[in-house]
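input
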Amino acid sequence: RNLLKRREHKERSQPKHRARYGLLEKKKDYKLRAQDYHRKEDKLKKLKVQAALRNPDEFYFKMINSTTTGGADHMTYRPPEDLTTEELRVLRTQDIGYLYSALQKEKKEIEKLQAQLSVQQMEEHEDEETPKVNKHIVFVDDEEELESFSATEYFNTPDELVGRRHNRLTKEQLKEPVIIAGEHLLKLDEDDGTEDTTKAQRKAFRKLQKLQQKKFLELKERKQRVKKIQTLIEEKQLEKNLESKGEKTRVNNDSDEEDERPIYKWKAIRQK
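output
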């Protein structure tokens, strides 16, 4: 029976002279509309009965702290200071939980950045922020050689890499492809001694330095963010602990420093 091809039944559309009314309403559409209408009708009837039976002298103490919108809807106003101690503790626990999740997220990002950068590169970057006097002594035979001495020629490296203490690549090494953070920065043919080849080398290393500088800056910002989040966690935890039971006294109450954090000591309670 189900294998035989049957005539396809199409629903009747809206007649042309009634097209301005939109789609033709079917029975299922009418049922939904009727149910919604009767639901609202019942609600109005119920409200009318409540209004008819209302006591004009009715009073609740809750009305003192309530406000009305349009003279009908009562909205209870509850200032934050009216929250109970237990409710405040729950809110602070939620805040601390959110801060811990943000802290873990920042630490994971820091680990990713540190994996992309070598320890020597990070040490070198820290030395740039707090520069130290580094010496590399080169001995020459006479004064003429001293006057004509060129560090670029001696180390056989571009000017941009002369000041490096490590990973000072030579011009021969620069001919090989350089890959950093998944990007192909440099791929040169055999050095033909032309000016274009040298420019390409310098351009590639400038791009490499910019990428590294960007990552170092992001790493520094994320480390600062971790310190701020840890400080916030400590402050929130202290507020939560102060609301707990037990006798406590502030240790550094006589301190002259305004920015110093308060330190509290709880009285030891013998556990039964």
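quick obs: Helices lie at 27-52, 85-116, 119-129, 143-147, 151-155, 195-242.
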